[in-house]
Amino acid sequence: MLGAALERLRAGGVVVDVVETQNAGAATGIAREAYGRGRRRFIAVGGDGTSYEVVNGLFPEAGEGNGPHAGKAGGGGRPTLGFLPLGTGNSFLRDFSDRGVEHAIESLIAGRTQTCDVLRLQHRGGVIHYINLLSVGFPADVATLRARRFSRQGELGYFISIFLGLARLRRRPFPVRVDGEREFDRRRCLFLTFNNSKFTGGTMMIAPKAEVNSGLIEYVRWGAIGRLGLIRNLPGLYDGTHIEHRLAERKAVKQVEFDLNAPVDVMVDGEVLTLHCEELGVLPGALNVVA
User: Fold this and answer.
1) This prediction's pTM
2) Phi and psi, residue 142, nearest 5°
3) Would you say the C-alpha torsion 207, 208, 209, 213 has a positive or negative sign?
4) 23-35 residue pLDDT tens
């Protein structure tokens, strides 16, 4: 599908140089090297995982600080990221349109940009950055199942993994403290999710109040709901009404601290990682996105 999309971009006056990834993680190195050579405009071709890799190339740990360029990749100016959503999961762009590739191409040709926050997670092994969401608990369990067993089934793989996740449902504590609260919240829960945008899994509106340039982290918690209760309320995860459930909570926050006693599976922008999370913050307006 890429050839036809590039032809349309070039016909619309967009000049592009194409570099292909050869393996998982390669887009991070490609973006980092190009940024170091002065490139500031990028297009991620693929799904949420590809844009996640590009973002982590633009926001390396060494490029951050407390000075006037803090939050701008490499300390050298705000980069711009566009998208050709040709992958299996393209959740981030649904905040702007449900027209997928058509909307993305139109936006690239028109040069429509807006600022976007970048979320920064400090974990015991380093730092990662993301623009969609990070989840622990049920969404991470589902994403892990999909990555390990149903990665080739596209959106169908999400649905299969959801129902398998229901069959082995786990509710456990992930101790967190937001914005300097006195105590860590150690209650058992179905999931915690820390969002910059609304959607995950293609069409699941897990954080309906999230805004990509609010300067805040949209924190959604769903308590220890039972299996039958979750099944009855599963449609709410797709239209956003799950946050109205009596066991659900949401907050817009600036900082999250974790008190985990071991690494946990996390789902971040469509990727599955195992991390010992420590602290989450936000870099307001650190990125321009074409959307």
Assistant:
1) 0.90
2) -65, -45
3) positive
4) 999 999 999 999 9
